[in-house]
Amino acid sequence: MKFVEGLVHKEFTTKTGLSCAIRWPKKEDLRQLTDFINEIAKEDTFVAYGPSDHETLESEAKWLDATLASCNNGSESYVVAEIDDKVVGAAEIRRDVSGKSRTHHVASFGITILASARGIGLGNQLTKTCIDHATDHVGGIRIIKLTAFSENTTAIDLYKKHNFVEVGRIKNALFRQNKYSDQVIMVKEIE
Description:
This protein is of the alpha+beta class. The chain is built from 4 helices and 8 strands, in the order E-E-H-H-E-E-E-H-E-H-E-E. The chain has a single domain, classed as Aminopeptidase (3-Layer(aba) Sandwich). A hairpin with a 5-residue loop joins strand 1 and strand 2. Helix 1 packs across helix 2. The longest helix is centred in the middle third of the chain and has 17 residues.
């Protein structure tokens, strides 16, 4: 399927009865995506962004342009989840960009959901949609990898549900809320 900005991939009703659409991003999402990532940072949740990180419209515009280009050229699948016309979640699978042929078949997965939209089935839907799309759109992927905070058992359980398997841990590799955490490394093989 060819990338089309804003194209809706899936519409569903959440566990709480809200209507949700999962779609590709579009340039007009700039303000919402900037607000989204900055809200995630403030939450100080289990992601790389922390309370001291802040994106400007300018920095996010550069990121969005690069993401749209990567989606268009088939090296990335990036989807957003929208409830009541607000971006509340996002997931991406991006081919490793080393440019080397030996890792061309490997991609990285990431997912982020606002606190207000967690626990309603969105993580499952975003993960499934992103993986399904990436296996069709990002050609040649055979391995999808991810990392997680060891105490983020909700996410780890979600990943296991989608056939990710833990392959290792890096002790104390992550730091959040004045505490070190192990970084869990998981992979999913695509057949």
